[in-house]
Amino acid sequence: MTTIEQPFAATASADQTDTARPTRGLAFWVVRYVPAELAGTAAMVIAGLLATMWTDVPALIALAALIGEIIGFYALLAVTVYLEQVQVTSTWRQAAGRTALLLVAEFGAAELLDTLLIRPAALLVGVWLIPDPLWGMLAGKIAADIVFYAMAAGAFTLTARTGLRDGSRRARPSA
Questions:
Q1: Quick one: which of 28, 50, 66, 129 is 20 to 30 A from 159 by CA?
Q2: Are the C-beta atoms of residues 45 and 62 closer than 8 Å to each other?
C-alpha cells in the first residue's frame, strides 16, 4: 500500500534504512496539485467574468478572480488533505485539526505572499496588457503559479521530511 509520502515511489525494501526517502517525480506533483488547480482556475474564470458584468475596471476584475481562485483551490485541497489525514488519525476531529495545520504549513507563507503581492500584481498586469480579460487573467495566473508552487512544494517536502504529514515525527538516529 502506498502512503502520502510515496504515492508513486516503490516502497522501501526491508534491507533499506529508515533514512531512505522516496523521490517525488513530476507525477506526484501533478496528482497532488492539478485537481485543485483546475477547481481554482474554473472558480477564477467564473468570478472574473462575472465581475465584468458589473465593471470594466481591471483591478476589480483581478480582485474578483483572485477571490474566486482562492475559494475553488482551497475547497478541493481541504478535502484532499482531510482524506489523507483520516488514514493517520483515530477521529474525524483529529483529522480536521491536522488538515488545518497542514494546509497552513504547506501553503501559509506561499499564500500570504501570493495573495498580498504576487497574484494581484500578475492578474492586474495580465488584464491590463491583454485586451481580452479571460486571456489576461490566465496569463497572470500562470505567472503567479510558478512562484506559488515553488514555495508550496518546498513547504510540502519539509512537512513530509519532519514527519508532520504522516504523524510519525520520527527522531533522526544519532551519528
A1: 66
A2: no
Whether the pLDDT of residue 71 is over 60: the answer is yes
HSE-CB at 42 with a 13 A cutoff on CA atoms is: 11
pLDDT tens readout for residues 25-68: 778 888 888 999 899 989 989 999 999 999 989 889 888 988 99
Cell of 26: 513530476
DSSP 116: I
CA-to-CA distance for 153 and 42, rounded, in angstroms?
22
Alpha-carbon dihedral 107, 113, 115, 121, rounded to 10 degrees:
-140
- What is the grid cell recorded at 54? 458589473
Q: Are 50 and 64 in contact (CB under 8 A)?
A: yes
Residue 127 neighbours by CB under 8 Å, 6+ apart: 58, 61, 62, 133, 136, 137, 140
Euclidean distance between CA atoms 131 and 116, whole angstroms: 24
